[in-house]
Amino acid sequence: MADIWSEALQGLEPRLDKQTFDMWLRPIRLASIEDDRLRLHAPNRFLKEWFETHYLALVLDEIEGRQGRRFGVELEIVEPAEPAKAPAASSTETSIAQSPAAQPTVTLRRGPEAPTGLHPRYRFDSFIKGASNELAASAAMAASDAPGTRFNPLFIYGGVGLGKTHLLHGIGHELHRKDPSLRIVYLSAEHFMNEFVTAVRNNQFDEFRARYRKDCDCLLIDDIQFIAGRDRTMDEFFHVFNALYEAGKQIVVTSDRVPADMPGMEARLTSRLNWGLVADVQPPDLETRIAIVQAKAERDGMELPAEVCLTIAELVRSNVRELEGALLRVTAFAQLRGVAIDKAFVESVLGKRRVDKTPITIEAVQKAVAGYYSVRISDLKGKRRHRGISRPRMVAMYLCRQLTDSSFPEIGMRFGGKDHSTVINACKRIAALQEDDEELRGAVESLRGQLAS
Ligand SMILES: Nc1ncnc2c1ncn2[C@@H]1O[C@H](COP(=O)(O)OP(=O)(O)OP(=O)(O)O)[C@@H](O)[C@H]1O
């Protein structure tokens, strides 16, 4: 009976990319054939769902072509009998008949009450899945179902504001929910470097090493591209990676680009980052953008007419952060002016505002921000870290990114030759701070209005 299955797979193997075949088809097993039904086993929920949606029809067509009849299918999740590599949390999939070997083999020390640094809103249930992020989102969920096993490391990459950090935090929350004893460490690569430098300077290397190599069951690192070219940090991260990986601990990494495309990143690190699954997030399509606008409005207790959601989604295409910003702008303006939100209003706030106007330049942004905060343009381009300077500098970088077509490296260059990751961090920081800081939100809106007019 297994021949039906293996013959079909053999027929398909040369027609599919090797990685695709090994990842999605090979792990599916034929358990039995009853009448005209194939009973198949998938090792986990993620593989089951992915196989069902993407490859099942293909395999059934192949079988039909060979056998001359169409089979039905029952696809169940059955974990492989051999012990999982990771001693971490087992899958909570209730339908799985767990073999004793699949249970955790060591008792983990209790972790903190809740992993620190995780944004309370960045959870899977508030993440809208669409074609543009499907692989990354499903893989993130799979990694939190069975950490340290199949998708380890999980590498999520993509452009700015597309949900990488949201997914990373989602994994942390989900792992913690399923097993509060897990020690989950989340931090940005920049933070990792700063801690490392401080540890070396203060002779606290043993503590640093213990924190990341031993007392950690899951490492979530944001913006790994930051450490490219920083030799000692890369070397340290390499050892952290090895220690955790060998212990079967889950590692999830995000970046703005694929591992192979990071100039200055050591080859031994790039290759390790490629060991597991590399999944991208792309700018959302129209349907996903509409769903995101609806969900965000609902979360904020607003009911927006479908036409309004559609108009916002049509006008803002680049990324989700900008979509959120646009929604915030529309609702804030409507509140200020005390008017109802309809299509024409949205267009007046977002849409045609830039048409027929000269494009906003980086210089114009720097000038407006310097004037607003009463600082010198040379300070914005300089290195001083005093809050009175660094805050306006970050706001200026943020507005340059929002209002001009300039890339991160280009903005960095025009701010006194700063690294693109500094610009990325500034943009993120200002976007996040605006959520709670009304004064900052007011400043950004006022500058935006000034520059747009
Ligand atoms: N699919 C989605 N569903 C719901 N919200 C989303 C989705 N994608 C992104 N967001 C939201 O958009 C905002 C930006 O997302 P996030 O910070 O995760 O982006 P990122 O890819 O990490 O970008 P960056 O590289 O700039 O850090 C967040 O508020 C996040 O909640």
TrEMBL record:
Membership in a protein family: Belongs to the DnaA family.
HAMAP family per record: DnaA_bact (MF_00377)
Organism per entry: Plesiocystis pacifica SIR-1
Gene that encodes the chain: dnaA
Keywords annotated in UniProt: ATP-binding, Cytoplasm, DNA replication, DNA-binding, Lipid-binding, Nucleotide-binding
Region (Domain IV, binds dsDNA): 335-453
Transferase in keyword set: no
Main location: cytoplasm
Domain Chromosomal replication initiator DnaA C-terminal: 361-430
Biased composition (Polar residues): 96-106
Region of interest (Disordered), ranges: 82-119
Pfam families the record matches: Bac_DnaA, Bac_DnaA_C, DnaA_N
Low complexity compositional bias, start-end: 82-95
PROSITE patterns: DNAA
Domain AAA+ ATPase: 150-279
Function: Plays an essential role in the initiation and regulation of chromosomal replication. ATP-DnaA binds to the origin of replication (oriC) to initiate formation of the DNA replication initiation complex once per cell cycle. Binds the DnaA box (a 9 base pair repeat at the origin) and separates the double-stranded (ds)DNA. Forms a right-handed helical filament on oriC DNA; dsDNA binds to the exterior of the filament while single-stranded (ss)DNA is stabiized in the filament's interior.
Protein name: Chromosomal replication initiator protein DnaA
Lineage: Bacteria, Pseudomonadati, Myxococcota, Polyangia, Nannocystales
Assembly mode: Oligomerizes as a right-handed, spiral filament on DNA at oriC.
